[in-house]
Design goal:
The protein is α+β, with helices and mostly antiparallel strands. About 40% of the residues lie in helices and about 20% in strands. The protein has two domains: about 55 residues; about 80 residues, PH-domain like (Roll). Strand 1 and strand 2 form a beta hairpin.
């Protein structure tokens, strides 16, 4: 995250300086071109947004995955929406190479795209962990129903 913010700061400063120079140059030009001024302003604003994000004026949220016996929660992108799913609300889990789809009891589907995870090994581990946890929670996984634990009575 620090490296990303550093790169955004450098890029933002470069764009803001270039955009400022272009706006001033176009406004002082004899042959005034409104399109060029608008383009220069867009470059300037883009640079300012990059600087604002790098300095936490516009905060980014960390991407994360968290799973415990009561829920699954995740945010897969820096600007994405956080998803919090209770295991009791999940009717089925469909896992593929690229995504995990949670089908909720109200037939709503929530998709977790595994392609947003840079490390393929980590993505496979998360997918396998979700499948195992779903089986433990007696949730249907890829169309296969989990079996309830049998208790022996003596």
């Amino acid at each position: 995250m620090k490296q990303l913010k550093r790169n955004l700061l450098i890029t933002g400063l470069f764009l803001a300086a270039g955009g400022t120079f272009a706006v001033i140059r176009e406004l002082q030009s004899i042959a005034y071109a409104p399109g060029a001024v608008i383009a220069a302003v867009i470059v300037l604003v883009t640079g300012l947004v990059c600087v604002a994000v790098s300095r936490d004026v516009l905060p980014l949220k960390d991407a994360y995955f968290l799973m415990n016996p009561s829920r699954v929660s995740f945010r897969m992108t820096l600007v994405g929406r956080e998803q919090v799913l209770q295991w009791s609300d999940i009717a089925a889990v469909t896992a593929s190479e690229n995504r995990v789809v949670f089908t909720l009891c109200n037939n709503r589907q929530v998709t977790m795209r595994l392609t947003t995870i840079p490390d393929e090994h980590t993505a496979r581990h998360i997918r396998a962990s979700i499948q195992l946890a779903a089986l433990e929670q007696n949730v249907v996984v890829n169309g296969v129903a989990a079996h309830a634990k049998l208790q022996l009575v003596s």
